[in-house]
């Protein structure tokens, strides 16, 4: 079993489907999807845009800018269909939400969703306001061992690019667990982890990165403002780090 599924930078796609960072800006694709020179399966837009912008983060040439201009049903995401019924799924990406200066405590938008072919959502992440001009990344995973039926929580983001990584395992090959790291490069010390976790043996078939499903407060305060993403990497087992 390969440990790495795909690296989907917004830079030039190299041999084997992997993307190389640090190439010249002229090498940036016309769009993030394969049809336009990118590495993603699809570019999904309804009431928003998901486009290539320059420069990227941490030395890359280009990034994804996701912008919403619609209501709560709007989305502007890229899609990766390379996972195949993955019982364990690890992913990392960079996010920069500095343009969102007016998010309130209940103003939010999804930024990442992993989904099975049956529609189950093993993990989703959101950007949320902290009420004082800052931002939080919030996780949500279904958990039948929890009294609420889920595990959720939030961690503060800093100004500029932030690294977000998570590991979700349905326990098919051992103990089920969920862990998340936010600007944290130490595998042994995640910001949150649980081993009393059961997501009903959900698997991952598709991943979506970008803005989707905003709350009314997000629409009112932050429509037409771009959030940047870069250096998405998904794997089955090994810690990604940076």
Report on the biggest sheet: 8 strands, antiparallel
Distance between the termini: 23 Å
What's the total number of strands? 15
Helix content: under 10%
CA radius of gyration: 17 Å
Q: How many structural domains?
A: 1
Point out poorly predicted stretches: 1-5, 9-26
Q: What is the CATH architecture descriptor?
A: Sandwich
CATH topology: Jelly Rolls
Main structural class = mainly beta
Number of helices: 1
What's the shape?
globular
- Helices and strands, in order, run as EEEEEEEEEEEEEEHE
Strand content: 35-45%
How much is the average pLDDT?
Answer: 87
Oligomer class: single chain
What's the CATH C level?
Answer: Mainly Beta
Overview of this protein structure:
The chain has one helix at 216-222, and strands at 4-8, 42-46, 48-53, 63-68, 75-80, 88-96, 108-115, 123-129, 135-142, 150-156, 162-169, 177-182, 192-194, 206-212, 227-235. The protein is an all-beta fold. The strands form two sheets. Strands 1, 3, 4, 6, 11, 12, 13 and 15 form an eight-stranded antiparallel sheet that branches. A seven-stranded antiparallel sheet has the order 2-5-14-7-8-9-10, with no helix packed on it. A hairpin with a 7-residue loop joins strand 9 and strand 10. The two termini are 23 Å apart. 50% of the residues are buried.
